[in-house]
Amino acid sequence: MTIAGVAFAGDRRISGVDVSTDGGQTWERAELKTALSPVTWRLWRFEWTPPKPGRYSVLVRAIDGDGQPQTAARAQPFPSGATGLDAIAVER
After folding, report:
1. What is the pLDDT at residue 45?
2. Structural domain boundaries of the chain?
3. Strands 55-64 and 14-20
4. Best label site of 22, 42, 51, 78, fewest CB within 10 Å?
């Protein structure tokens, strides 16, 4: 199963994207496409095989250019940019 998306951190850049398939207990690094400029969206993808049939919650967090992971605390975009983890439910 391919899980993919985009990440953005403005002029802080994106150095990585982590994916969790177990509710945030463990994280694995996704593959990043090459950045086209210092201030750009980064495409990412993660190949995953669910261990058994069922419903899974997949969490994603961006890592900025200084190595700081995106916080789980939710905040609106204004004035400093949105925060919070992105999550989707997948079923196999």
Report:
1. 98
2. 2-91
3. antiparallel
4. 78
Answer whether CATH 2.60.40.650 is correct for domain 2-91: yes
Cα distance between residue 19 and residue 38, in whole Å: 23
Phi and psi, residue 36, nearest 5°: -85, -15
Residue 44: how many CB atoms within 10 A of its CB? 22
pLDDT tens digits along 67-91: 999 888 887 777 766 778 888 888 8
Rg of the chain taking only CA atoms, in angstroms? 14
- 27-65: per-residue pLDDT in tens? 999 999 998 888 888 999 999 999 999 999 999 999 999
Cα of 74 vs its chain's centroid, Å: 15
Q: What is the DSSP string of 10-65?
A: GGG-EEEEEEESSTTSS-EEPEEPPPSSSS--EEEEEE---SSSSEEEEEEEEEET
